[in-house]
């Protein structure tokens, strides 16, 4: 069975984070992958929040969300134009009020990473097993 792909663009705005989360849930329900909805929505929320926070200091007006379902893997990608800092997994001090998003992404995903985009920016990608178990 060939894979499926869905691409959406969202404005760099805090209001776009819940819109992106809802978009992911709806696409996954349509693809009969609704059981991945909550984890994928939480991951989307973390990555979209990072894109909005950092790209606001960057050069772009949008972030892009791509979902792909192929060979039993759901690939979720968020791309933005913020090119000066690549996200890194770190352990924040207990007193810090932020910096835990990638810990959640790491815990919920099979794999994740980041790659620079051609031109400006980066793409953070996440793999989730599409099958239960």
What is the distance, rounded to the nearest whole angstrom, between the alpha carbons of the first and last residues?
21 Å
Multimerization status: single chain
Task: Bin the strand percentage.
Answer: 25-35%
Globally, the shape reads globular
Rg measurement, Å: 14 Å
The helix count comes to 3
Low-confidence residue ranges: none
Number of domains: 1
The SS-based structural class is alpha+beta
Strand order of the largest sheet: 1-2-3-5-4
Sheet with the most strands, sense and barrel status? 5 strands, antiparallel
Mean pLDDT: 86
According to CATH, the fold-level topology is: Heat Shock Protein 90
Number of strands: 5
Name the CATH superfamily classification: Histidine kinase-like ATPase, C-terminal domain
Helix content: 25-40%
Q: What's the helix-strand series? A: EHHEEHEE
Which CATH class is shown?
A: Alpha Beta
Name the CATH architecture: 2-Layer Sandwich
InterPro entries: Anti-sigma-factor_SerPK (IPR050267), HATPase_C_sf (IPR036890), HATPase_dom (IPR003594)
Protein name: ATP-binding protein
Organism: Streptomyces oryzae
Domain Histidine kinase/HSP90-like ATPase: 38-126
Describe the 3D structure.
32% of the residues lie in helices and 29% in strands. The protein starts with a strand and ends with a strand. It has a five-stranded antiparallel sheet with strand order 1-2-3-5-4, with helices on one face. It has three helices and five strands; from the N terminus they run E-H-H-E-E-H-E-E. The protein has 133 residues and is of the alpha+beta class. A hairpin with a 5-residue loop joins strand 4 (111-116) and strand 5 (122-129). It has one domain (4-129): Histidine kinase-like ATPase, C-terminal domain (Heat Shock Protein 90, 2-Layer Sandwich), CATH 3.30.565.10. The radius of gyration is 14 Å and the shape is globular. The chain has helices at residues 16-30, 37-55, 101-108; strands spanning 4-11, 62-70, 73-80, 111-116, 122-129. InterPro entries: Anti-sigma-factor_SerPK, HATPase_C_sf, HATPase_dom. Pfam families: HATPase_c_2 (PF13581). Keywords: ATP-binding, Kinase, Nucleotide-binding, Serine/threonine-protein kinase, Transferase. This is ATP-binding protein.
